[in-house]
Design goal:
alpha/beta, 26 helices, single chain, 61% helix, elongated
C-alpha cells in the first residue's frame, strides 16, 4: 500500500503539531493559486474558471499518490503555453470545441505519463539536458510575456507562438492601446515587484488582485473600455467523459508527448530542489510519473486541462512551513470556497492585472547567469542553449525542445566517438601512472613499454578511433616496443563490434612479438572480456587489477602473486 499510495507513509504518522503549519501553508498556497490558476488558464486560451477546475481534483489525487511532500500541483505557465501553442496549430472552430480539445489533451498527457510510470521509464527525462531546458524555458518565458501584451495594451492581438509574429502583431495594434488597461497592468507589475523586494511574505499577487477589483468597481473603469474577467460560473466542475476521438488523438499526440515529458521534467526538477532543502524527503521518479498521470487523467473527467508542479507555489508551501502533503487539502478547500461562493468578487478583475501576474511570475524563468557560465567554460553547450532558445522563439515551442534534444544527442555521440585518449608514464618517485602530456618532465618514459588509457566505453562508434590512435603510438615506438598495457579503468562497457576489433588488435600485436596487457578493468567489463573471447586471445595471466602490477609482470613475470591474479580474474558467476 505504501508503495502505490505514498499517503500511507505520512497519514498514519501525522501529528497534531503539523495541522496548524499545514493549514497556514495550504491557505497561503490557495490564496496564490486562485488568481494564478485563472491567469494561466488565459495563457492556455481558456476561460479563467478552467484554471480553478484544474486546481481541485488533480491536486487531491496527487496528495494520495505523490512522493514529495512540498510539491504544489496545478496549472503552470509553461504547460499553459504549450497547450495554447499545440491547439493553436489545429483548425479548431468555436470556444466549446477548443475547451473540449484541451480537456482531451489532459487525458492523453495523463495516459502517456501513467504508461511511462508503469514501464518505469522515468529515465527518459535524462535526455533533456540542462542547456536544452534552460534555452527552452527562457524562450518559452519570453513568448508567454509577449502573449500577454494584448491584455496589457487592452487590444485584440492575433495569437501566435512565435516571437517575431507576436511583436509585429503588437506593433500593428499599439496605436489602439487603452491607456487605462496599460496603466493598470504597469502598476500591477511595479506593485508585485516592489512588494516582493520589500517583504516576500506579503501576498503581493493577492494585493494586486484586490486593488485591481476595487479600482474598476469604485472608479467605474469598465465604462472606459477596461477589459475585465466578467462572469465566472459558480459551482464545482461536474463529472463528464472527455470527448474521445481517434482522429483528434492522432492530431494531439505530438503535443501530448511533449507536455507529458516537460511536465514530468518540471516536477522532478522542483522535487529534487525541494529534496536538497528537506533532507528527509525522498522523491521517487517513477512514482511521480504515476502520480502526475493519474492526476491528469482524473482531472480530465472534471474539466481540467494539463497540470504539473509549480516552482513558485512549491517554494511558498516550503517557506510557509508545510509539514506534509496535507497542505494541498487546505489549498483545494480555498479553491472550492472560491468556486462556490466567491466567483462574483472576481467579476471586476481586470485582465491587465492577470497579465501583470503572469509577466512577473514568468520573468523569473528566464535564466541569465547559466548562459554566461557556459559561454565562459563550455562553448559547445552554450551553442546548444542558444540554438534551443532561438528555435523556441522563432520556429516553435515543440520544435525548440525536439531540435535541442537532437543536437544534445548528436554532441554526446560526437564526444563518445572521439573521447579523451592518453599515453601514460610513471610519475618519478611514486607508483602513479599519469598522462605524459600533463606531467611532462616528471614522467619516466620507456621505449620498450606503451601504457594507454581510453576514457570512454568502447563501442562501434569509437572502435576505429581507438585502433587508429593505438597503432599510431605502437608504430611510433618502433621495434624497441615489447609490451602494450591498456588501462581499462574508465571503460565501463565493450560492445561486440569493439570486442572483435580488440581481439584483432591483440592478435596483430602478438604477431609482432608485442605482448598485450589489460589493467584496472571493473567487474562488468571483466565479464565482457571473458564472455566475448577477449580473454582467450589475451591470456588470463595478462589481466591485472592495477597498472603497476601489469608493469611488474612485464619486467618480471614471476613477481605477481596468485592473490592478485585471482582478483583480476574474478567475474560474475554464471
Amino acid at each position: 500500500m505504501q508503495k502505490f499510495f505514498p499517503i500511507v507513509d505520512w497519514i498514519f504518522n501525522y501529528k497534531k503539531s503539523y495541522l496548524l503549519k499545514d493549514l497556514i501553508a495550504g491557505l497561503t498556497v490557495g490564496i496564490i493559486l486562485v488568481p494564478q490558476g485563472m491567469a494561466y488558464a488565459m495563457v492556455a486560451g481558456l476561460p479563467p474558471v478552467y484554471g480553478l477546475y484544474a486546481s481541485v481534483f488533480p491536486v487531491l489525487v496527487y496528495m494520495f499518490l505523490g512522493t514529495s511532500r512540498q510539491l504544489a500541483i496545478g496549472p503552470v505557465a509553461m504547460d499553459s503555453l504549450l497547450v495554447a501553442a499545440g491547439l493553436g496549430t489545429l483548425a479548431i472552430t468555436g470556444v466549446e470545441n477548443y475547451i473540449a480539445m484541451a480537456i482531451f489533451l489532459a487525458f492523453m498527457v495523463g495516459s502517456i505519463q501513467l504508461l511511462l510510470g508503469f514501464l518505469r521509464m522515468g529515465f527518459l527525462v535524462n535526455f533533456l539536458s540542462k542547456p536544452v531546458i534552460s534555452g527552452f524555458t527562457s524562450g518559452a518565458a519570453c513568448i508567454i510575456i509577449l502573449s500577454q501584451l494584448k491584455h496589457l495594451l487592452g487590444v485584440d492581438i492575433e495569437k501566435s507562438s512565435k516571437m517575431h509574429e507576436l511583436v509585429v502583431y503588437a506593433l500593428e495594434k499599439v496605436g489602439d492601446t487603452n491607456p487605462y488597461d496599460f496603466a493598470i497592468g504597469i502598476l500591477g507589475i511595479f506593485i508585485i515587484v516592489l512588494l516582493k523586494k520589500w517583504n516576500r511574505k506579503i501576498p503581493s499577487i493577492l494585493v494586486v488582485v484586490v486593488l485591481g477589483v476595487l479600482a474598476v468597481y469604485v472608479l467605474g473603469l469598465e465604462q472606459y473600455g477596461v477589459r475585465i474577467v466578467g462572469n465566472i460560473p459558480q459551482g464545482l466542475p461536474s463529472f463528464q467523459f472527455p470527448d474521445f476521438d481517434l482522429k483528434k488523438g492522432m492530431d494531439l499526440w505530438p503535443i501530448a508527448l511533449t507536455l507529458a515529458l516537460i511536465g514530468y521534467l518540471e516536477t522532478i526538477s522542483i522535487g529534487k530542489s525541494m529534496e536538497e532543502k528537506i533532507k528527509e524527503d525522498k522523491i521517487d521518479a517513477n512514482q511521480e510519473l504515476v502520480a502526475l498521470g493519474t492526476s491528469n487523467i482524473v482531472g480530465s473527467f472534471f474539466q481540467a486541462y494539463p497540470i504539473t508542479a509549480s516552482f513558485s507555489r512549491s517554494a511558498i508551501s516550503n517557506d510557509a512551513g508545510g509539514k506534509t502533503k496535507g497542505f494541498a487539502l487546505f489549498s483545494v478547500i480555498m479553491v472550492v470556497v472560491t468556486l462556490l461562493f466567491l466567483t462574483p468578487l472576481f467579476y471586476y478583475l481586470p485582465n491587465a492585472v492577470l497579465a501583470s501576474i503572469i509577466m512577473v511570475s514568468v520573468f523569473g524563468l528566464i535564466d541569465f547567469e547559466y548562459p554566461k557560465t557556459l559561454l565562459k567554460y563550455r562553448k559547445d553547450e552554450y551553442i546548444i542553449l542558444m540554438l534551443t532558445f532561438l528555435i523556441t522563439l522563432f520556429v516553435g515551442i515543440k520544435e525548440g525542445v525536439l531540435i535541442g534534444v537532437l543536437i544534445s544527442l548528436l554532441l554526446m555521440v560526437y564526444r563518445t566517438s572521439k573521447p579523451h585518449y592518453a599515453v601514460l608514464g610513471k610519475v618519478r618517485g611514486s607508483e602513479y601512472y599519469k598522462n605524459i602530456n600533463r606531467f611532462g618532465e616528471d614522467i619516466e618514459q620507456r621505449d620498450d613499454l606503451l601504457i594507454i588509457r581510453f576514457d570512454s566505453q568502447l563501442y562501434f562508434g569509437n572502435k576505429n578511433f581507438f585502433k587508429k590512435h593505438l597503432l599510431e603510438e605502437v608504430n611510433a615506438k618502433g621495434k624497441s616496443l615489447k609490451g602494450v598495457i591498456l588501462n581499462a579503468e574508465p571503460i565501463n562497457y565493450i560492445d561486440s563490434t569493439a570486442a572483435n576489433m580488440l581481439i584483432s588488435v591483440i592478435e596483430d600485436l602478438h604477431n609482432r612479438d608485442i605482448q598485450f596487457y589489460i589493467a584496472g578493468a571493473i567487474g562488468p567489463t571483466r565479464d565482457i572480456i571473458f564472455n566475448s573471447g577477449i580473454a582467450d586471445v589475451l591470456g588470463k595471466d595478462f589481466l591485472f587489477v592495477r597498472t603497476k602490477e601489469a608493469v611488474a609482470c612485464f619486467d618480471d613475470p614471476e613477481s605477481i602473486q596468485d592473490t592478485d591474479r585471482k582478483i583480476a580474474h574474478q567475474r560474475k558467476p554464471r
